[in-house]
Amino acid sequence: MSTSSFQMSSFTPVDGKIVNQSSTSVSFSFSSAYVTHISVDIWSEDDQGATYADRQETDTNGTDDVGLSFAVPAAVDLHYKITISGDPGSNNIVYVRIEW
To answer: Which end of the chain is more exposed for a tag (fewer CB within 10 A), N or C?
Structure first.
């Protein structure tokens, strides 16, 4: 299993890539007091022959951490896009952890 952690400091979507060697699941977890909605899009690279795309979203209550999990094809590199919304007057820092 591999892990990546980072923080988002604004409500601009974040795009990234996951080099997946054998995992069949990807989990995203989020921690923030000010975010009210999170969506994650995940898709495979076009040149790998396995077309995969999924989207999940969740509302948050500003207190509890939330997570989203995806069942993905093994050995397929993936791209993701995280989009968040929340209180426009807040600090807007979201801690993100990805496990695959």
So the answer is: N
